[in-house]
Amino acid sequence: MSSSVSVANDNGVAVVTIDNPPVNALSFHVRKPLYEALTGLRDDPAARAIVIACAGRTFVAGADITEFGKPVQQPELRAIIALLETVPKPTVAAIHGTALGGGLELALGCHFRVAEKSARLGQPEVKLGLLPGGGGTVRLPRLVGPAKALAMIVSGTPISAGEAKAASLVDAVVDSDLLAEAIRFAREMADRGGPFVPVRERNERLVETDLAAFDAQAAELAKKARGLEAPLACTEAVRNAITLPFDAALAAERQLFQKLVSGDQSRAQRHLFFAEREAAKVPGKDLQKRRITRVGIIGAGTMGGGIAMALANGGLPVTLLETSEEALQRGLATIGKNYAVSVSRGSLTEEARQQRLGLFKGGTDYADLADCDLIIEAVFEDMAVKKDVFGKLDTIARPGAILATNTSYLDVNEIAASTSRPQDVLGMHFFSPANVMKLLEIVRAEKTAPEVLATVADLARRIGKVAVVVGVCHGFVGNRMLSARGAENEALLLEGATPAQVDKAFTDFGWPMGPFQMGDLAGLDIGWRNRKARGQTAVIADTLCEQGHFGQKTGSGWYRYEAGSREPVADPDVEALIRAKAAELGIARREIGADDIIERTLYPLVNEGAKILEEGIAARASDIDVVWVNGYGFPIGKGGPMFWAGLEGAGRIVERLEYWRVRTGRPIFEPAPALRRFAETGAWEGAGVR
Ligand code: 3HC
Ligand code: NAI
Fold this sequence. Notes:
Number of domains: 4
Largest sheet: 8 strands, mixed
Number of strands: 19
Bound molecules: 3-hydroxybutanoyl-coenzyme A, 1,4-dihydronicotinamide adenine dinucleotide
Strand content: 5-15%
Strand order of the largest sheet: 12-11-10-13-14-15-16-17
Shape: globular
CATH class of the largest domain: Alpha Beta
Mean pLDDT: 96
């Protein structure tokens, strides 16, 4: 037997163990010996029952994603499951860790499932732009009912062993000794005697289904699909399980899977899966990490409060420092209110709320931070204030404490230079709301020690953030590219577009909202203040701000908002203002198509990414994709701006940038050398992070 699959006999119960680190994916070198082992055991009289278990940290976490897009090697998972269903003796899956995707499908091929209490079970294929392709859409509804199966398959979110037991997905949940318990269970079933009914023949949950209610549920889910094909295919497949005979539904699932797996959306989502894992591997990851047991946060405003919650949610004690007792209490009250809302929405238990609140301490004296291993500064975006804060930190922080700034734009090297320990200083750029948004840009300054980066990358993982290491420049990766994306926004309006037309081009592309809606949500005064500080102007936005139109918070901005509503309504006054400004500037307005809008916003976005790559501000093109998908809502089905550039055709992007450069005379459209090279070679080349 191969080292990936071994068989032992425990007093008449055959135990098949899969051992394919790190997550026991069903690679070809697992499928082949697994198929052979099961073929032998099916007819082996010495085996009265079969248990399938896994070595290492988890049960099978799915098909081997690296094999998708390559020629299929037989036997496929479907054949293994079909074989399992012909076994006349009891088959039992012993589940620990996670049974995901093809892993859960393998378990569904068994007669019974025994799970450890901490195990999680799910069909996350939708997150890879796929649907379960090993019979999951057809078998799962037979055990848990179509409504529950649909919710699990379309969300991709795994459920706990307890929930799985309540839903009849597992037959027994055990606290410990999983393998021994699974063997005992299998032996008991063998003693009890057959016939053992495979899941494919269990139709009782299907017959009782209310198809109209199912369709209503499916229609609700379809509304949230936002241009993604996979959730719709999942729905279709689960519906087939109700309306078609088993084999026909299985064949239809296969067809849908084949279509998705060879499509661009799944390719993009698989790219992101690996990109996120790659981004987490920061240089120096294997270095000795520093211990982080308490975190200090300076500033309990929007960001400080959110960062504190993110850390407490990850179980870390936090000390908040503010300038006055009043500001501190305000910050703590906001945190308390946010947790109370989570409890009222049912996303947090009362017990967890109290436990989290117990992790917060506050103070107004720097000495309160002396025992912190990491101190994150989130005060006003002002270099003088930040330098003052870091100068004070230098005098009180314990040796070896990591000092981080959450600055959005300021020079982290300059901030680090205001201390005597620049090796311990870096940027931790969280996104708002920091307790919700997954992205963390880890800003590596010139002198940041590698083990400091590694420690913070580890911490990010501990609190569930997706971390990307970036270099120092104005706005780092995300905000710098955001400026490039928005550089032509006003020009588009002056030349003939309306805010609503631009925003529609964005939502049609798959963004959750367009730049003008986004501006109204964030507050137009922020950009106004920044522009004034930098001596810049924006003819229309500045006028709106001068008139007190800051966006949603004032009831008007680029759009109008009815009292209490977040629904943007086109504002004739804004359109009149745009027309007046265009006339003042002598610009003849014309029809602007969606293509023009995309070319003048997203092509500069890609172009700026190329510059970032060649300057070594990001190590890999895929890191930039991770930033944009997790921090700015770039549609996952397009894989991030740098991946999308490949889909769109880099040659076309270069050509159109050149066209717009000639037409407008603006340098934003000058194609970056790295983009030109990408157009020639089809591969992004970067300089690596400095
Ligand atoms: N195939 C190939 N490699 C995989 C993999 C898979 N299904 N799942 C994880 N890996 C790799 C990761 O790329 C990573 O590799 P690296 O160390 O070289 O970067 C390594 O395994 C460890 O993964 P994580 O860092 O994610 O480990 P965690 O412990 O944080 O998480 C996990 C473990 C929850 C299992 C997570 O890896 C995960 O969610 N995996 C994907 C699960 C999934 O999507 N399964 C469905 C696959 S599609 C399918 O089954 C189709 C079927 O219906 C036919
Ligand atoms: P904010 O104005 O909501 O909060 C700042 C807080 O810092 C205030 O409560 C203030 O009392 C406190 N403060 C000021 N000086 C202080 C000092 N010397 N010591 C202790 N506390 C002090 O500002 P916000 O939005 O939280 O921004 C903070 C930082 O985070 C800025 O650098 C900003 O650029 C950055 N940032 C902001 C994002 C956002 O969306 N708001 C996103 C990412 C980063």
